[in-house]
């Protein structure tokens, strides 16, 4: 699928959780071309500051209406500027970029989805696609494990519970739902309720993804993890978004994948997680997860 530049128009901007905004954009070509799990690079503001485009996931895609939705958290200058933009502001998008989520082949078996913080953004469109193409998959066979640092950072309950899927919420500080990390909530619930998903989807901080990946590998469950790294170009030109990857069979050389063009969605087995952990500083995504 080819990528293109599109001038989008802000239709609506609403604060939906702590420092978290939902933006509805008129972007007909993007809405027509994008699929769940892909992303686009957004020119936050004209001029030199911020200079680089910022990557954002498609939170919802409405091809019929020619609209897309973005769910974003304010973490720095670009997202702060974005949160100040009023309806009718024009924004330049480059996309759709990256691979997308694959829907499960076996429509009848349950799927598990783990979302950490703003990682819920692309997973909402995935859930809608699963519901639309579910075949014999019942809504309640979609198990969403959704965690954040604190209650204020979670999307309102009605946004997800109204879909009829099984939602399990948790917070790191215990202010809502399960008291602890979403990965522990997932592990315990899957064990207690004997949930053996046919596919495990996840998006969230790298530390969370590391635990999700370990679970998937231990339980031999195919996984599709939407990973993040700092991006400058978004199209494979700057090589800035590299993550250490598993080498092809027979090779001992260091191997890297680029999140923007090889991903952002990867199977747990394709990343060398221990190399990310040993980089010293925690992955930068900790800052806003
Ligand atoms: C494929 C992809 C999809 C994304 N989708 C979404 C989304 O749907 N919603 C959303 O809120 N965010 C999303 N992000 C993250 C988003 O791009 C960053 O939050 C944004 O670029 C920050 O811009 P800023 O100018 O506000 O912050 P900056 O001023 O650029 O940075 C503020 C601080 O955050 C750190 N930081 C910035 N970007 C990242 C990053 N990608 N990973 C780790 N640390 C970072 C910086 O190191 C800095 O310390 C996505 C990132 C990727 C790679
Ligand atoms: S962001 Fe430039 S290569 Fe990935």
User: Would you tell me the overall average pLDDT?
Assistant: 90
What is the topology, as strand order, of the major beta sheet?
A: 4-3-7-1-2-6-5
Bound molecules: flavin-adenine dinucleotide, FE2/S2 (inorganic) cluster
State the secondary-structure class. Answer: alpha/beta
| Helicity range | 10-25%
Helix and strand pattern: EEHEEEEHEEHEHEEHEHEEEHEH
Overall morphology: globular
Low-confidence runs of at least 5 consecutive residues: 278-289
Amount of beta strand: 25-35%
Radius of gyration: 18 Å
Describe the largest sheet. 7 strands, antiparallel
End-to-end distance: 30 Å
Oligomer: single chain
Total number of beta strands = 16
């Amino acid at each position: 699928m080819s990528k293109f530049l599109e001038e989008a128009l802000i239709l609506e901007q609403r604060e939906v959780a702590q420092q978290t905004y939902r933006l509805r954009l008129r972007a007909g070509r993007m809405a027509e071309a994008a699929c769940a799990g892909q992303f686009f690079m957004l020119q936050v503001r004209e001029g030199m500051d911020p200079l680089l485009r910022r990557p954002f996931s498609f939170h919802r895609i409405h091809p019929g209406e020619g609209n897309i939705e973005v769910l974003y958290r304010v973490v720095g200058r670009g997202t702060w500027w974005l949160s100040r933009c009023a309806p009718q502001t024009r924004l330049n998008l480059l996309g759709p970029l990256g691979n997308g989520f694959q829907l499960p082949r076996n429509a009848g078996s349950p799927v598990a989805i783990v979302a950490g913080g703003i990682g819920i953004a692309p997973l909402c469109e995935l859930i809608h696609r699963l519901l639309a193409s579910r075949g014999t998959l019942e809504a309640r066979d979609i198990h969403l494990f959704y965690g954040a640092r604190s209650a204020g950072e979670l999307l309102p309950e009605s946004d997800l519970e109204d879909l009829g899927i099984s939602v399990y919420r948790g917070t790191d500080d215990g202010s809502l739902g399960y008291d602890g990390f979403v990965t522990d909530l997932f592990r315990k619930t899957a064990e207690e309720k004997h949930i053996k998903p046919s596919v495990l989807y996840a998006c969230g901080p790298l530390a969370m993804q590391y635990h999700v990946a370990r679970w998937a590998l231990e339980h031999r469950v195919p996984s599709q993890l939407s990973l993040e790294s700092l991006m400058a170009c978004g199209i494979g030109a700057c090589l800035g978004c590299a993550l250490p990857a598993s080498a092809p069979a027979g090779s001992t050389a260091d191997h890297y994948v680029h999140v923007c063009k090889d991903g952002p969605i990867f199977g747990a087995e394709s990343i060398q997680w221990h190399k990310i952990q040993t980089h010293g500083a925690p992955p930068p995504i900790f800052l806003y997860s």
